[in-house]
# Entry
Amino acid sequence: MTTAAHRRRASALRAARRRHDRESSGHAADQPGYAPRRQHPSHVAGALADALLTTSWRPEDMLATVRSVVPGRPAWARRLVTVVLRSYPRAPADRPRELRQFLVNLDGTPRVAVRRAVIRHRLAAPTRVVRMRWGAPGIGDLGELAEFLGLDDAALDWFADRREINRHARDERLRHYRYTWLPHRLIEAPKPRMRALQRQVLDQILTAVPVHDRVHGFVPGRGTHTSAHMHAGNAVLVSLDLRAFFSGITAARIHGLFRGIGYPEPVAHALTAVTTTRTPAHILRAAPGPYLAALLRQPHLPQGAPTSPALANLCAFRLDRRLSGLADRLGVNYTRYADDLAFSGTLSNGRIDRLVTLAGQIAHEEGFAIHPRKTRIRRQSQRQSLTGLVVNARPAVPREDYDRLRAILHNAATHGLAAANRDGHPDFAAHLAGRVAWMSHRHPSRAAKLNHLLERARSGPAGAP
# Structure
């Protein structure tokens, strides 16, 4: 192609863009001799949805608004308003995208009219909060969200990754996450600024939303011991594992969660973008299998983000409610700790099979999957382990773990902390104190012995100067 042809093509492209901008904004309608072009139905539906949300939700005002935006006979506009009012008795001020999609999918005469319509000019009103649930802070639009997060508009776009730079950039400095492959899972750890934003969302929004009372993982005041206590001393313990718990939760579900809290669609989309991610293609080459790679390729909860456990718990609320109902019907206990499902009680072989089958069906219906190779059935004659604790009688750390820690403490008390620190912990004394607290929980005899050894280790080896 010659240079002159290149210039003509570039000029034609610029003219087309200007014409598209005029037609989309409605300014072209005011120009003399303007002959509007027919536009895509989704564009017309979007203009109508925006315009309807600027007026009072009364038939006569809505009719006047429709006719001012899209010229044409009044009959179809009246039918359109009637259909909208029948489906939306109240103005969906926080759901402009939903209203637009509703108008795109109309049937009959309104659908034909929308497909043939041309936008005369545009009207729009900012979205607003209609009703907040659970006392979460109200954020009406993207400007308020940027202010809430302490960002400007450009920074909000950057962290929401609207251009998918995190997915496609080769330069690690342009990404919001660092990636580490572990067996059967990918840790996607947010960088400090992204982590700080996610922590703010967690502390100020997500903590206001209640989780199911059978959930013990990542919930203040609950933990492995409270979960294990629910199953201690039972005849049968059935453990199931949810497959790809974090990466299997899609951005669409997170968006629905934020919408359920009460945030308008644009705010919910931005919060979803800040708390989900898509794994870069070159990272996926090291995936252990196609199933996990397919999940990570789509927007999902990153395992490693501070918001992911809370969001996963909230997305699993219906799952927990249904599984707790199943457990109550069968007369057994139910808890969930992250991706670990546990049932315990007195169960025959037939009832165990029925429990496992129904739990798998419920999980599938709620958008989760049971890992087929991680279902465990343990009776009192076997060691019943749950979240790292033995629950045959009362929750306790396995004896071999207790003996190993006692040997390490004895070595530290005899030869010093530095000599016993074979794994190179930066603060070995604090590490040992944490392990002692874990081992001693509700076990006073173990606590006395381990704390005595810990004090000897802190004091230094006998005979030291």
The two ends are 88 Å apart (CA to CA).
